[in-house]
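Researcher: I've been going back and forth with a colleague about how RING-type E3 ubiquitin transferase might be arranged in three dimensions. Neither of us has a model we trust, so I'd like an independent prediction. The organism is Linum tenue, in case that matters for your notes. Sequence below.
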Amino acid sequence: GSLEDCLLNHSGKIPLPWFVRFKIVFEIACGLSFLHNSKPEPIVHRDLKPGNILLDRNYVSKIGDVGLAKLITEVVPDNVTEYRDSMLAGTLFYMDPEYQRTGTIRPKSDLYAFGIIVLQVLTGCRPNGLLVRVEEAVRCGTLANILDPSIADWPLGEAKELAQIALNCVKLRCRDRPDLDTEVLPVLRRLGEVADASMKTERCSIYAPSYYFCPILKVCKQSRQL
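Model: Here is an independent structure prediction for RING-type E3 ubiquitin transferase. You can compare it with whatever you and your colleague have in mind.
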């Protein structure tokens, strides 16, 4: 199935626990990093959304539907807005506003979509109007009120940290968004470790650490151990 099916309960299964959601977010970020660091040229997905995040029976995620993915022969600097793609592509609520306005395509265009997905993972809501709701909740200190109510044991501190990462990723201008590899992934890796610890505490054998199943995460883990 897909992440969309699980979040909106199209599959009729038990709601994803918070620690599985945290691991999925980390896996998506790792997948994006893999695309954006591809050689010889970076690859931008251009249509990242929950429906394109595929989950296996162990809830290990893979980024699917790369039909709109685009090789970037020359990475456009964050402060350049003159470059235009020949045709806009993607899904409206996940589409980078700067890309919509200027046609400029960059790896950070995917980061906007990633941020919206993270907000959905936290709230279980559809994307329309979600950004404004989360911004207001964070500003008013009421984030707990809009977290997915199907999960009773949200770790509020970590949820707030994840929400802030998501809000940083959906800044209107690409230049204001964080760097995926140096600013986003380190935080998500740490939150993933919190999730792993919770998995062990809950003794949920079905949710084995993701690097047992995901080759990209396995390589990342091995490289950190060297």
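Researcher: What would you highlight for our discussion?
Model: I'd start with this: Residues 3-225 form a domain with the Transferase(Phosphotransferase); domain 1 fold (CATH 1.10.510.10). After that, consider the following. DSSP finds eight helices and four strands in the chain.
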